Amino acid sequence: VGDSSVLACPRKPNINMLTWKISPKVGGRCSLGYRTDTNTTDRTNCSDSMNWIFRPDLGPALEIQQVGIAQEGNYICEVVTPDGNFHRTYHLTVLVPPRPSLYCDEHGHPVCEAAAGKPPAQVSWLLESNSSLEVESHDSGTVTVLSRLTACSTNVTDTTCVVFHPAGNWSESIAC
């Protein structure tokens, strides 16, 4: 989320026309078209954050600036040449890194939270296993995962929480 993403079309010689057909999970479809004979582009229902880029090292491609959850979905590029039509399909999934935190609750129990991540983070404790898990889904498509350690070993002074997520992992220790 927040980064730019570049999706490349198949590289073919003698291109007549290129079309991106975009079907987001949320909202309506959009399309971008380019005709080489007239050097014109056409945009139908696409946001201004989606634009053509033409680079020699990449060929024709679609750039999505500041990707958000709303851009998740299927992206199909169709290239029309005298030799036929060629397609490339992408399924764009947006990762939202959670905001991790570790604190002691009012009862002196360690609480580890991974707030507003997508997909939901996995939360675990090192050397401890007695914990409760709460999961809260948000309208934005993100999920908060909260783990509360319910019983600690009496000989352990620091407790370590580990948050696993495709966008990056995190760990921290606390003594309550």
TrEMBL record:
PROSITE patterns: IG_LIKE. The keyword DNA repair does not apply. Gene3D superfamilies: Immunoglobulins. GO terms for biological process: regulation of neuroinflammatory response. It is a single-pass membrane protein. Residues 60-175 form the Ig-like domain. It is found in: Membrane. GO terms for molecular function: signaling receptor activity. GO terms for cellular component: external side of plasma membrane. Keywords: Disulfide bond, Glycoprotein, Membrane, Transmembrane, Transmembrane helix. The keyword Lyase does not apply. Belongs to the CD200R family. This is MOR1A protein. It comes from Neopipo cinnamomea. The gene is Cd200r1a_1.
